[in-house]
Amino acid sequence: MGIRERKERERERRKQQITVAAKRIFLERGFDKATMEDIAKEAELSAGTLYLYFKNKHELYASITLKVLQFLNMRLAHIKAEKFDISPKEKLDVLKDILLDAYDFDSMALINLFHLQSRELLKKLSPEFIKQIKKITKQITDEIADIFEEGIEKGVFIKRHPAAFAQIIISAFSGIVLWEEGKKSGGDKKDYVKPTIELVFEILTKGMLKERNT
């Protein structure tokens, strides 16, 4: 391994160290009360070191979101793999499982994702970071839309714009996760995300099937 590769690996290791510490602080104190100094102390680094890797607290917060986006994108890309050579309707079941896995993988990061624009974080992020988030978000939307485009072409789903179908799925999922978050903040400890998502997919799938609309 060359010097450049070692430096890059060390940089990624340090970024991981910072994001893990940041997640703990955000969970403990919330975004508004957390400071870069708190995060630096948790990571056992100087505050100045954090700024070598992240522009500000907002970009560090958004970096946690980026990880769940990468997880989603990776899993969705596998639907096109040979082992997922299944019907469009069956691919919807796989999509449902992927979304639920993302919630299990990191529910906080997922909530961060849905709060991203409402917090106006985009205004405080570097152009390069925004570009990265928008690129991967588009890839995810396109992967979901591809499922519906295939289903329309094969006569499985009703003829509507595939991107509209994708937006319906994404909106329903984000709404349910945020609804669940609101309930928890109100003292309700039960988690209804999985059964609610399963019900939503059942209802939406029936409405999208061409055989039920002819």
Explained architecture:
It is a single chain. The protein has helices spanning 3-33, 36-43, 47-53, 57-77, 88-105, 107-115, 127-153, 162-185, 193-208. The protein is an all-alpha fold and 214 residues long. It has 2 domains: 1-54, Arc Repressor Mutant, subunit A; 57-212, Tetracycline Repressor, domain 2. The model has no long low-confidence stretch (mean pLDDT 86).
Task: Give the topology, please.
Blueprint: H1 3-33, H2 36-43, H3 47-53, H4 57-77, H5 88-105, H6 107-115, H7 127-153, H8 162-185, H9 193-208
Q: Give me the CATH architecture of the largest domain, please.
A: Orthogonal Bundle
* CATH H-level homologous superfamily name of the largest domain: Tetracycline Repressor, domain 2
CATH class of the largest domain: Mainly Alpha
CATH level-3 fold name of the largest domain = Tetracycline Repressor, domain 2
Show unreliable segments: none
From the helix content, strand content and strand pairing, which structural class follows? mainly alpha
**Sheet of most strands:** none
The sequence of SSEs as H and E is HHHHHHHHH
- What sort of overall outline do the alpha carbons produce when their principal axes are compared? globular
Helix content: over 70%
**What percentage of amino acids are in beta strands?**
under 5%
Distance linking N and C termini: 62 Å
Estimate the mean pLDDT confidence.
Answer: 86
